[in-house]
Amino acid sequence: MGFALVDLMTGGPDYAATAEQQEKQRQQRITQGTQQINQAFSGFTPGFYQQRAQAYQDFALPQLAQQYETNRNQVGFNLANRGLLASGAANKNWSDLARSLGQAKQGIADQGISQAQGLQQQVEGQRNTLLNQLYQGADPAGAGASAVQTAAGYAQPSTFAPLGNMFGQLANQYYLSQLINAYRPTSYVQSPPSYSASAGALPPVVYGGSQ
Q1: How many domains does one find in the chain?
Q2: For residue 110, what pLDDT is reported?
Q3: Are 167 and 102 in contact (CB under 8 A)?
């Protein structure tokens, strides 16, 4: 108490003003670091995630096309081998194959969106972690460097696992045999056209994530 009075009387250190100045400088460093972090993550827009969802479709659809051709040929062979190309069984088989194709295409579109959303959650979670570290350490240079490195890693193209068997049920020979044997020839039917990766428009990928 005596020292405080002496300081005031003699014009000694003003600790309150010093603390206030230090806090002001700390807030300035936090503001600077926040700007650097946000700048490093500025490329992760809704358009970025939409492109990631589309990238998965571009990766998976050609594989789906190959699977469709394989299963289409198998269905045609089984029908022809039993003399049922002109039958109700053929109509049922082609209908099931077309339905499975449509479901698979929708599943691929949904999976692309799901992967993009998962990536966004990871990116936002890491950005928030860096911001929390900045608030605690008030080190804008360190926060900025970490943000640039982290963002660069997430900006790399995604690696996708090969597409699983999207026609597993139809490819099951027991299922096909039971289905075919339940019918007898009734009328002539045409086999469906070949499928290509660009055939049949997929629903557009609409990504509603926030920055």
Answers
A1: 1
A2: 97
A3: no
